[in-house]
Task: structure prediction
Amino acid sequence: MAGGEAILERLTHPEVADFLIRGARFIKWDEDTTVGQQCTVKVDSAGHLIYWRAEDKETDLLELSFVRDVRTGKSARIPKEQRLRDSLRIGSDDVLLQDKTITIVHGSNMVDIVYVNFVSGSVNIAREWTDALMRLTHNLLAINASPMAFLEKHHTKICVQTGIDGKIPVKNILKDVSSSKEDKRRVLDSLQSVGLPHGKKDSIAPDKFSFEDFWGFYNRLCDRKDIDTIFAEM
Result:
């Protein structure tokens, strides 16, 4: 019975804990940093992404479907450099650094792996976030999502990557959606066709870019009149 309940839980859309959505303050570090950066870390309400913004920086993120493991305590990573360790002071100094650290193992495959580390203010926060993130990243429905769910995730990815002004830079949409010069032109034309800001230096207010707005933009972007004509003639 217990095994059946475990399978059922993995086949149910994961519920995102309120404290993940509200977010919390952490100090982020990775192998390339010399000092830790304070940031606010959050998870979107659908459980697609974990994202954060350091002071005076643009939003960064990880897709939860590509998270391989979430570790704390003895399994968490701690920096070798004393200067970096000193910059990670948060909460009580009586608690070991690894017990306050969350290490996220992330990669689209098992070879190209990166480790992203967040230091919290307490052992309880580290454990609570680790357990909650593990539930989100090991859910079968989330991993094998429908095409519409992938579009919703892409929309969320664009919406959380706001600039310092809290708006969505058009350049981010260009970066996420297009590659060639011709593709960039099509993206800008599609934004214009649905009444959205379309200059390369423009920004879009998040409340003006709902999923319905994104869906309209996506359909204009993927419009193939040549294929429509073939189906119409059948």
